[in-house]
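Hey, why these numbers?
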Amino acid sequence: METARPLDALNRSKDKKVIVELKNNKQYIGTLKAFDIHINVVLENAEERMEGEMKRKLGVVFIRGDTITIISPE
């Protein structure tokens, strides 16, 4: 039986839209382009949301892994 690893789940989400939630309750929604073993992520066409409301469009963003609480497919 094959075991699923967290980085495998991220690999399946590559080039797809994801929601990244941070410790400060901000959310970033964008296309997952890259990540590393520290779960630092790069999103394209990213939007910043707070309390479900779109605050601003950011384009390409780098998010440090130690600030992330959740990464979810949209």
About this structure: Helices lie at 6-13.
